[in-house]
């Protein structure tokens, strides 16, 4: 006899068993505990029961199968119907998340909770700040386990938009994460979003890679400096190079403007047929190839792309050869 069948609290509920059809060829072999819990969950969902015992039942099912989408939705509905404490639910959810880090349903449930809570605190700045701090601390715990967890970063972007966290505290938090791991591309992406999607000055109708004339020049200069300084720490880290390209586009600045700086990573002679004696970063070499192509110095660009394919990034040789083909008509 199972837990629910032997529990007087559930005497009034007739469980609904799983039915896979007559002669099912691939019936799933559920454990007895899970089968019973799900049978009672089907029953309470069918009767639209929103109660404390139903809430406890959802917690039991989630402990057995955290990826069960339906149980999460029913749990959210039950919490909202009961007007239960969202703060308590967030605390409970944090413990679940720490042991199920790649579970999407957990993060969707968390967003539903914040969406439900926010209208009640929208005019209370201190409450918003308190929520932002607690959520940030929780995300830091998650990042300690996996600093590149896609679900956490997606949720963080959602939270920034929801609570309007386009502020110095959020930027400082991201800088701290980059100090721990300058190669964290997720942190770089979030910084770009944070800086260039700020509703205080950005044109939110533009695509991420489009020039935005509303972005203050001081911010463009600051972000260019930040990206360039990061390349010195890890020249072979692609993230700051990509970030720099994005900032230049946002500021409508030509990549040519950074030629002198980029040559610090590549030691070359001045004539176009020169032998490259030192390359500290294949990304710098690609950066220069694009600069030279834009300047019309196609011989130098072709040499850079050849070196990338043959020596500095041979795993992508076909890609570099494809880029060389784009130069071929200009080389004739």
What does this structure look like?
The chain has 15 helices and two strands. It is an all-alpha fold and 332 residues long. Among the domains are: 88 residues, no CATH class; 67 residues, no CATH class. A two-stranded antiparallel sheet has the order 1-2. The longest helix is centred in the middle third of the chain and has 21 residues.
Q: What is the straight-line distance between the termini?
A: 84 Å
Q: What is the typical, i.e. mean, pLDDT?
A: 93
**Largest beta sheet, briefly?**
2 strands, antiparallel
Order of H and E elements: HHHHHHHHHHHHEEHHH
Shape: elongated
Spatial strand sequence of the major β-sheet = 1-2
The poorly predicted ranges are none
Helical content stands at: 55-70%
SS elements, strand count: 2
Number of helices: 15
Note the beta-strand portion. under 5%
Secondary-structure class: mainly alpha
Helix/strand layout:
Blueprint: H1 32-46, H2 52-64, H3 69-82, H4 86-99, H5 104-121, H6 125-145, H7 150-163, H8 168-180, H9 185-196, H10 217-233, H11 238-250, H12 259-262, E1 266-267, E2 278-279, H13 282-295, H14 298-312, H15 317-331
Helix pairs in contact: 1-2, 2-3, 3-5, 4-5, 5-7, 6-7, 7-9, 8-9, 9-11, 10-11, 13-14, 14-15
């Amino acid at each position: 006899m199972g837990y629910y069948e032997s529990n007087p609290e559930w005497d009034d509920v007739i469980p609904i068993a799983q039915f896979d059809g007559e002669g099912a060829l691939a019936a799933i072999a559920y454990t007895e505990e899970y089968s019973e819990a799900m049978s009672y969950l089907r029953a309470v969902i069918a009767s639209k029961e929103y109660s404390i015992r139903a809430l406890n039942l959802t917690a039991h099912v989630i402990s057995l199968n955290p990826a069960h989408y339906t149980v999460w939705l029913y749990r959210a509905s039950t919490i909202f119907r009961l007007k239960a404490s969202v703060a308590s639910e967030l605390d409970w959810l944090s413990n679940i998340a720490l042991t199920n880090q790649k579970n999407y349903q957990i993060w969707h449930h968390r967003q539903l909770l914040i969406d439900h809570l926010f209208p009640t605190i929208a005019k209370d700045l201190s409450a918003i700040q308190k929520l932002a701090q607690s959520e940030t601390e929780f995300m830091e715990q998650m990042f300690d386990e996996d600093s590149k967890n896609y679900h956490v970063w997606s949720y963080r972007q959602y939270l920034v938009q929801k609570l309007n966290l386009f502020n110095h505290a959020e930027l400082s938090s991201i800088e701290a994460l980059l100090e721990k791991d300058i190669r964290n591309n997720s942190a770089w992406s979030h910084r770009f979003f944070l800086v260039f999607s700020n509703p205080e000055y950005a044109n939110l109708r533009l695509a991420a890679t489009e020039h935005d004339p509303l972005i203050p020049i001081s911010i463009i200069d600051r972000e260019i400096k930040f990206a360039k300084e990061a390349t010195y720490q890890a020249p072979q880290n692609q993230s700051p190079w990509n970030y720099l390209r994005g900032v230049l586009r946002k500021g409508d600045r030509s990549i040519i403007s950074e030629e002198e700086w980029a040559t610090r990573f590549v030691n070359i002679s001045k004539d176009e047929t020169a032998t490259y004696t030192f390359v500290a970063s294949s990304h710098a070499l690609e950066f220069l190839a694009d600069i030279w192509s834009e300047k019309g110095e196609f011989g130098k660009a072709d040499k850079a792309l050849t070196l990338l394919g043959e020596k500095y990034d041979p795993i992508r040789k076909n890609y570099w050869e494809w880029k060389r083909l784009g130069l071929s008509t200009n080389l004739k």
